[in-house]
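Q&A log
Question type: sequence-to-structure
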Amino acid sequence: MGKVMLVLASLIGLCCFTINTYAFSPSGWTNAHATFYGGRGACGYGNLYSTGYGTRTAALSTALFNDGASCGQCYKIICDYKTDPRWCIKGRSVTITATNFCPPNFALPNNNGGWCNPPLMHFDMAQPAWEKIGIYRGGIVPVLFQRVPCKKHGGVRFTVNGRDYFELVLISNVAGAGSIQSVSIKGSKTDWMAMSRNWGANWQSNAYLNGQSLSFRVTTSDGETRVFQNIVPANWAFGQTFSSPVQF
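Response status: OK
Response body:
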């Protein structure tokens, strides 16, 4: 009987682990368009190679960017071959991370150059990612996309910038939902304090925390919360990045 209970407990534990690995569920498919650009872009992530995002990235149009709240979200994109068999690669998909904003160009019409104008849903993708699904000469292709869980190597990273009474913390390499809803910070001598989004994936605090170890409480856009206890040691300096073993 004891062996049976042990096996059942192991199976229940495995089941729960599997369910919680990627709690964020994919959305349905939505129509959009996609172009490509040659630059690396950013939501404040800086060098996309050193921060782990590589070339599978995209800038989002206003309708998708949500004033930076969508930074870090992941999307699976396929070229709509039925609509455009000439420039789409049939049966291919690519998953990208939102790392930049594609600004509107109101001097051009929505169907001729103003691809990122509201209310259009548009992805201006890094060229290597775009060429996974489209033929270079096409320039712009119709796509279908769905938001999917992000899968990242390693844990969440925290880069502390700013000066004295101003901490500007870039939070990157976030798995699961990818995008962040809220952040709190705690020094080793303070209580928890809410941070505010400064821009993109950068969150700010106006407290003097020099010489204190720092902890963060992060909630992603699907409501999942993780506490990163003392992830930043007391001898930290502005400009440093700290990696956590904790992930969503």
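Response note: Confidence is low (pLDDT under 50) at residues 1-21.
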